[in-house]
Design brief:
single chain; Peptide Deformylase; five-stranded antiparallel sheet; two-stranded antiparallel sheet
């Protein structure tokens, strides 16, 4: 496992670099991320959240859908989005903070798997939300960036405590 980086760490604001090749180091990182995500009981985890500014995220929606297993997205690209939906989100880098935010309702994303093969996912619902949330981490964008000024003001103390806990 790797420790989860908390809000305030500059790596969370970096734009992640593309993965050049899927080697043993990448496979080891994905294995560590998977163990970290399962231990944290989260739905998704991006490499920057474990201090690695590279374009990888994983999703494990098995807690909400028993047919799901861990999905690995390497060098993902958003092809298109549609609709809008307001739903509550949380983030492992912001423990204890949950907020309703608007995101696209559907997404089409292309990525490479651990096997080196390119795949495309058309998603809606919680899968689309998780994909978009984790993709944002690769862009250096955080879910608090979607908060209204009032919500941010109300959470200022909590965010400041998180940032100073480094």
């Amino acid at each position: 496992m790797k420790p989860i980086v908390l809000y305030g760490d500059p790596v969370l604001r970096e734009k992640a670099k593309p993965v050049e090749k899927i080697d043993q180091a990448v496979k080891n990182l994905v294995a560590q991320m998977t163990a970290t995500l399962k231990n944290a009981k989260g739905l998704g985890l991006a490499a920057p959240q474990v201090g690695e500014p590279i374009r990888i995220f994983i999703l494990d929606l098995s807690a909400v859908d028993l047919t799901e297993s861990v999905r690995v997205f390497i060098n993902p690209e958003i092809m298109e989005t549609s609709g809008e939906i307001l739903m509550e989100e949380g983030c492992l880098s912001f423990p204890g903070i949950y907020q309703k935010i608007v995101r696209p309702e559907r997404v089409k994303m292309k990525a490479t798997g651990l096997d080196g093969k390119i795949f495309t996912v058309h998603a809606g619902g919680i899968l689309a939300r998780a994909m978009l949330h984790e993709f944002d981490h690769l862009e250096g964008k955080l879910f608090i960036d979607y908060f209204s000024p009032v919500s941010r003001a109300l959470l200022r103390g909590k965010l400041k405590r998180l940032a100073t806990a480094l």
